[in-house]
Amino acid sequence: MRLLLVEDDVMVASGIKLGLTDAGYAVDWVGSGERAEEVLRTESFDAAIIDIGLPAMDGLELTRRLRRPGMASPAMPVLILTARDALHDRVQGLDWGADDYMVKPFELPELLARLRALLRRSQAATTAVLSFGPLELDTAGRRASIRTDDAEQVIDLGPREWTVLEYLLIHAPKPASKDKLLQALTGWDKEITPNAVEVYVSRLRGKLEPHGVALRSIRGFGYRLELHAQ
Amino acid sequence: MTSDLRNRLLVLLVLPLLALALVGVWLDYRSADEAAERHDQRLLRLLPALADSVLAPPIRDSEPPLLLLAPPVEDFLRQHPGYAAYSVRDTSGRLLLGDAWVQAAVPTTQAPEFHSVEYGGVTYRVAVQRGRTGAGELVVALADGSDPRQQWAQQLLLRVLLPNLVLVAAAGLAIHWAVRRAFKPLVDLADAVEHRSPRDLSPIDEAASPAEVRPLVRSLNRLFALVNAQAEGQRRFVADAAHQLRTPLAGLQAQVEAWAMMARASVPAPLSLNFDKKHPPAQGVQAPGAIVLGVEQIEKLRHATRRTSQLAHQLLALSRADARSLDAQPSQRVDLKDLCETLLESFLDAATGKGLDLGLDVQSAHVTGHDWLLRELLSNLVDNAIKYTPAAGVVTIRCGVRHAMGLSRVFLQVEDDGPGVPEAERGRVMQRFYRVPGTVGEGSGLGLAIADEIARVHHAALALGTGAQGRGLVVTVVFPPEPPVVGS
Fold this sequence. Notes:
The complex is a heterodimer.
Chain A: E1 2-6, H1 10-22, E2 26-30, H2 33-42, E3 47-51, H3 59-66, E4 78-82, H4 87-95, E5 100-103, H5 108-127, E6 129-132, E7 135-138, E8 143-147, E9 152-155, H6 159-171, E10 176-177, H7 178-185, H8 194-208, E11 213-218, E12 222-227
Parallel strand pairs in A: 1-2, 1-3, 3-4, 4-5
Antiparallel strand pairs in A: 6-7, 7-8, 8-9, 10-12, 11-12
Chain B: H1 2-53, E1 54-56, E2 66-67, H2 71-79, E3 84-90, E4 95-98, E5 113-119, E6 122-133, E7 136-144, H3 148-182, H4 184-194, H5 214-266, H6 295-321, E8 332-335, H7 336-354, E9 357-362, E10 366-369, H8 371-388, E11 394-404, E12 407-416, H9 447-457, E13 461-466, E14 473-478
Parallel strand pairs in B: 9-11
Antiparallel strand pairs in B: 1-2, 3-4, 3-7, 5-6, 6-7, 8-10, 11-12, 12-14, 13-14
Helix pairs in contact in B: 1-3, 5-6, 6-9, 7-8, 8-9
């Protein structure tokens, strides 16, 4: 995965670069919006991390410009970094084409988690495959499988189980609320009860937990996909 | 203030009134005295007429002398029926004519004498004269019961003292009422200043104050403005300082976090929530002069960095929560259920990492306020709960609507089953930088102060309580029934 990091603060940039490189990403770092725009004309990236407070062209302007046609990767997910945390900036950032934002100072593991979620979503849009640990969901072929180093095992899922799992997978590692799962299921049944969600979740558990993928209950809220060490 | 003034005014006004009343009594007495003098003169003038009325000695000894009352005497007697009488006696005091009770010692000379005689409850002025009459030397006496001096003494209470007392009492009441009315604006002003919170230094409406106190209001407002400017300067300094700290802190934290990640990756992790495939640790070439830090040291460094970052963030939040800095920002409708769910998501990893059961118990609830401030409030409460609750504990975020006494009040609540806060400490934990003695774990002592400040800005009440099982801490924020527009 190739990432573009646009950040003028050397300390922040080198820290992020170090962390991302360690996590296995290829990181290209530029210090200004103008330079980033130049690079983006010719080179493509899987995602960009952009600081909002850049010296001349700010991060929001850069985000707007990189979405223009003619750019190498206009559809890539953009994560905005900001030292300002007023609501106004957040909303504006998302309006201008950013996919997520983080307020400085931030914790690196959270940045990685958000980045992973962004990448997974953008990947699913292009390759139609959602993955989470050993679990893979081919949304085009509607095929769920567990991939291990030496083998691939297909998991047989009913249509409603598929809907629940797909929803959980798209949102992982964030938890999904029962209400939202219920809404996702109403496409199948007009009159579905909250209990039905529990039924499908418990069925999914039976199928996935032997492979180290857990559907953890979040009290009063919903469920979250988690990986369990085997 | 007003009662003191009222008393002074009462004394100052009632004393002259009393003096006036006394002068009135004295003048009244003087006029009664003059009237009495005139009465005496009249009796004196009438005495010779009465003597002249005795025309001739009696025909027989046993009969009274012949009397034909002179017209002035007859007029006098007719004018005061019941209060006027006469008597005619011989020089030995034997009654010849008239009423027996009109008597006095027989005068030794021909000069008229005056006496007071009590008869039938009335004090009479009796004038007595010894003189020659048609029947020889006799003693004639006239009694007049309409003596103004006597009547004055009787009527003193009713006629003079009572009206004056009524007047004084009325004056007292009038003063009481007038002072209260006249000083109402001043009392209102004092009340308004008294009931202000130390943070509310908005100017008092000068136009609404009476002209007399306007200079005072102006001075107060000037003082408020000065204090405001100073507080605002201080607030801005804290905000700027915290804000300026964030960028270098972000750099520091990014560096340390990266080291920590690398360090952890270089040692085998027993259980990891890392969703990525394992990567070989990035082994840098040891540069000359480089030092090697152990995983534990790097973790400590990271811990300290995170705390510093959080402190900077909290200071910024606290300075922003200040009511005065919110004036420019519009408040909006905030979905508390949504807020609780968002915070559950962001704290889930921290709670899971500590082995806590973080859960929700939420009903639909909305308040009018500042979204990011309420997020900050709840985030501080949840952060505290997670920080202070030991492993295997339960933390629950709640929101909903409470119905009590016909009022619906929206609430936000965080409950944990940790050590709780002793009742004696509950008032103090809201203070900035205060931490309960003996508290373990990290923390700046700002979390509850921030939550309290934000609650206050929203006109909500933040209260600490004991958990359902008799242990743990419950922090409840109850919003006013009709949330007013914040900052107005």
